[in-house]
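task queued by scheduler; priority normal; single chain, no ligands, no partner chains; default sampling; output format set to C-alpha cells
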Amino acid sequence: MLPDLPYRTKAGEPLLEVDHIDDHAGGGRDHPAAMIALCPNCHSNKTHGAERAALTERLRKVAAERHATWAASLT
C-alpha cells in the first residue's frame, strides 16, 4: 500500500506529476516503463536535490518493479 500523499487536487485526488526517471532532454526514454508519478516536492528533489543521483537510482528500481508487476497482470 502506498503512503498517504500529502498534496491533493481541488477534487481531493492525489496531486502527482509524471517524471522521466532519466531526464528526457538528456536522452531518457519516453516510455511508461521509464516514467514515474511523484508528488511535487519529490519531483523537485529528484530534479534539483543534492541526493538526486541516489534518488534516481532508487526510482529506477521502483519503476521497473511496478512496470513488471503491471505487465505480468496482463497475461
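post-processing summary
- The chain has two helices and two strands.
- The mean pLDDT is 89.
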